[in-house]
């Protein structure tokens, strides 16, 4: 009878609550004469989870009141983007939520309001991952003509 020995070691990441991960070392050894076995070891260490990254673009940088402009966000995350929220930044610095998108492509069609010619509107996108971490895009400007 011929006997073989197999050794293999693999490292995976195991996701636990709140988007946290821990490295998991799986060591499988088939030893002659004892039937082999499966050994699991859970190691500590940092979770390495990063907040999402997001960028925003618009189909136009200016338009007349009533014009429709499409906002498109590109969002990425090391574990996955949960949602992207589109916001308008008001003159006083407050952010007004316009809509939230939970599936790609992250986009929103907005209608430019009837404001005075020359008014600059600022929009941004906020991406959130399933761990609750979020990041904002740089604001883009659309001028009403």
Average the pLDDT over all residues and give the rounded result.
80
Percent in strands:
over 45%
Number of helices in the DSSP assignment: 0
Tell me the name of the CATH homologous superfamily of the largest domain: Immunoglobulins
Binned, the helix content reads under 10%
User: What is the CATH level 1 assignment of the largest domain?
Assistant: Mainly Beta
Protein architecture, described:
This protein is mainly beta. The protein has two domains: 6-42; 53-144, Immunoglobulin-like, CATH 2.60.40.10. The protein is built from no helices and twelve strands. The protein has strands spanning 6-16, 20-30, 37-42, 53-58, 62-63, 68-76, 81-89, 95-101, 106-111, 120-129, 134-136, 140-144. Strands 5, 7, 8, 10, 11 and 12 form a six-stranded mixed beta sheet that branches. Strands 1-2-3 form a three-stranded antiparallel beta sheet, with no helix packed on it. A hairpin with a 3-residue loop joins strand 1 (6-16) and strand 2 (20-30). The radius of gyration is 25 Å and the shape is elongated.
